Fold this sequence. Notes:
By secondary structure, this protein is α+β, with helices and mostly antiparallel strands. The protein has a single domain (5-224), classed as Electron Transport, Fmn-binding Protein, Chain A (Pnp Oxidase, Chain A, Roll). Helix content is 15%, strand content 29%. It is built from five helices and 14 strands. The chain has a seven-stranded antiparallel β-sheet with strand order 3-2-6-9-10-5-4, with helices on one face. A three-stranded antiparallel β-sheet has the order 1-13-14, with no helix packed on it. Strands 7-8 form a two-stranded antiparallel sheet. The longest helix has 11 residues, at 10-20.
Amino acid sequence: MEIDSSTLDHKAAYKLMIGSIIPRPIAWVSTLSTSGVANLAPISFFTSVGSTPPRVSLSIQSKSDRVTAKDTLSNIKATGEFVVNMATLPQIAALNNSAREFEPDEDEFEMVDLDKEASTMVSPPRVKGAPIAFECRVFQVFGSPDGLAGVVWGDVVNFHVRDDIYVNGRIDFGALAPVGRLAAEYTVVDNAFIPPLDNSVMKERTSRRMQRLDRHGEDYSPIDTDAWSSSGSVMGPWSSITTTDD
């Protein structure tokens, strides 16, 4: 199938992008408003820009109404600081709930029942229990013409790494259960390999569909429901899954 991108509206193009660019790492971004209200939101258009200096990139869309900037972008522009917390399986319900469109005066940490941890070199707090966090200061913001979306480059000025996963200067990622984003769903990274693989392993892994860990059938997609928005925000019923920082 050939799809001319000029024929697509925002929603159709977004579906193709998020279903094709997988898995995506999730930046669980904490910020503060100028009045001191904490904000927390997952951003899956996230990557590293470089290591000297250590720099990350966030691509932030507008809210679902397409006329309002997300609090994350507004706070970053106003204060020049943010924290990227690592998304892992133990906190996945809270992470998903933090994707809801709360009011600017609502503290997302309180709304999703998460404790804060003070940062060292920036004002926004960290997520208590997150195994890794990057304290960041803005290097540059590339704004959209309407000012509702943008790409943020931030320099990592301080790293927080849980002691038990810092091994000889590297991260023991095998102990983390990191979570990534697919289209409108999540995936947990629970295997690793170095090529080449045995043919039997290749055949077994590529001849079956991805396993679902939830109650839904293999052909289910949140994109087909009212819970999904092309803003990346969660719109459906509140998650009943118990969150934990353990």
